[in-house]
Structure formats: structure tokens, C-alpha cells
Amino acid sequence: MKPIYEKLIGCPDEGFIVKQIEGEACNCSWHCHAEVELVLVLQSRGYRIVGDNIRSLQPGDLVLLGANLPHAYQHTDRLSAARSPPECILLQFEERLWSGVLELPAMDGVRRLLRRAAHGLHVMDPTRKQVVAMLAEMLELRGPRRIAVFLALLDALAQSRRCRTIASPGFTASPTSHEEQRIGRICQFIDENYHRRLRMAEVAKLIHMSEGALSRFFRGHMGKTFPAFLNDLRVGRACRLLAETEMNVTEVALSCGYRNISNFNRQFQRLKRVSPRQFRRQMQRAH
User: Fold this and answer.
1) SS3 label, residue 72
2) Considering 110, 135, 165, which residue would you say is the last residue of a domain?
3) What is the distance between the alpha carbons of residues 222 and 217, in angstroms, rounded to a whole number?
4) For every one of its 287 residues, what pLDDT tens digit does the chain have, with 9 covering 90 and above?
């Protein structure tokens, strides 16, 4: 398993890096890094975890991740193996490289933006469309002109009222490297086995903990209980199956690890505020 704490960039010529990636390079396990990161999903059928929040991915998803905020992106799995490979645009920079600029009074809004990004920010329209256009422009530019667009992009985000906090206010995960590796192993194990019955004892054995210790450890670092996290993931996968396949509700429930259909309907209703059938009808109307 690759290191959980990652050093993404050194000292780039322009003070930041912007790049387009695709395929396996888009996937990343539970990790954090010193760099601030803006992630635009161009193509995906996976999910992202930001702090204690898990959400299915759709093309156009745009997120600003603050420095050292734990997150994971999973773009490919057996449900989407036959589909087009995932594609993303990443913008990454270290605040320390811009410390002088950020201290200017005119950058007060950007400083507030970066503080808010500590919990992750989901960027929505119309700001999203504006930022997407800027990212596309930056891919074609170099030098001072690219830097100018970079600063304009930060200002657009800072001025926007369409950036919503992702992780809960109480999320304060700052695990050690060893603890991060444990969280990464747990998330990977859940992702590979969510479709079957999962017992906490099984996961506890994986990382050599008692069930009680695992329960406290998981909630302390993920901001929610192990069952709640697993349920969020399963419902997210169920949403994709309801939207993209002809499987009936019972088949969807079984494929996502639910053995009790009433429980599946109850959990789906609680998280999505609609029944599985209503969700499918909404998606069909949207298309």
C-alpha cells in the first residue's frame, strides 16, 4: 500500500501545478497532503470521501480540498469496468509558496476561503462553470498569464456564495502516519467487500484491534460510526445501480449488501428522503 501522507509537488516554476489525468492515476486511497487541491471530475462512476462525508461522483464534480484534509477518490470498480476511463483535472499548490501574496490586504477573501477549505468545499453553479472554464484555460497557458488566471480563479471562489462545506464541523481527524495506514486499509477492505455481510469483528481482526477499540478509533478519525459509514457507501452504490441499470429494487439491495429489503428501503429513505423507486423515477425524468 502506497504511503498515506503524500508530498505532491516540490517548488513548481509558477507556484502551482495544473494537470489533466486519466485512468488509474485518478484513484487515490485515504490520504492527505500539505498541498491545497482543486479536483474537477470530467468522467467517473465512482465515489469520493472527504473527511467524514461520502458521495457518489458525477462528471462535473468540483471540490476544493484544504491542506492536510484526509480524502479518497475511487473512480473505477467492477460496476464500471466496461465504461470509459475516469478523467480529472487537478490544481495543486502549497500555501507557503504564496505566503507573501496571501498576506496582502487584498487577499483577505482568499485567506478566508482557504480556512473554509479545511473541511472541503463543494463548488456549485454558476461558480462551478466559471472555474471549469478557468481550469481549461490554464491548461493552455504558461508563465505570467497562467499565474494571472490562477489568482482570478482563487478570487472567484473566494467571492462565491456557491461553495458548500463538505465534512462536518466536528471533523478534526489528524491521525499519525500509522493510524492513517489503518484507516486506509479499512476503507479499502470495505470498498472490496461492501456487497456481502461485513462484521466489525472481521475488520477489527484485519488491523489487530478489539471491536470496542475499532469502534472508538473509526469514529474518532472518520467522524461517524463504522455501521453508518458502511451504510452510506452501500446507499451510494444503490443510487448508481438504480440510475444506470434495469435491476429491480430487491436485486439492487442484495447487490449492495442488504439482506433485509425493509431495512434497505428504510435506510435509503432516511438518507435520500425518497424511496428507491421514487429515486429511480426522478433519475428517469432527469434524463
Assistant:
1) strand
2) 165
3) 8
4) 232 556 565 567 889 999 999 988 888 877 888 899 999 999 987 888 887 687 888 899 999 999 988 888 987 654 454 567 889 999 999 998 898 999 999 999 999 999 999 889 999 999 999 999 999 999 999 999 999 999 999 999 999 999 999 987 655 545 556 666 787 788 888 888 988 988 899 999 998 999 999 998 888 777 788 898 889 888 888 887 887 788 999 999 999 999 999 999 999 999 888 899 998 887 676 44
| 267 in any annotated domain | yes
Is residue 19 located within the same domain as residue 130? Answer: yes
Task: For 169-193, give the DSSP string.
Answer: TT------HHHHHHHHHHHHHHHHH
The count of other CB atoms within 10 Å of the CB of residue 49 is: 25
CA atoms of 66 and 94, how far apart (whole Å): 10
Q: Are residues 213 and 250 in the same domain?
A: yes
Pairing of strands 5-6, 28-33: parallel
Residue 128 shares a structural domain with residue 149 = yes
Which of 132, 165, 198 is where one domain is finished? 165
Contact 20, 88 (CB under 8 A): yes
Q: Are 213 and 281 in the same domain?
A: yes
For residue 50, list its beta bridge partners.
53, 71
Can you give the pTM of this predicted structure?
0.69
Domain that holds residue 130: 5-165
User: What is d(CA 209, CA 1) in angstroms, rounded to the nearest whole number?
Assistant: 19
Residue 59, preceding bond cis, omega within 30 degrees?
A: no
User: Cα separation of 166 and 150, whole Å?
Assistant: 23
d(CA 45, CA 33): 24
To the nearest 10 degrees (0 to 180), the angle between helices 177-193 and 226-244 is 40
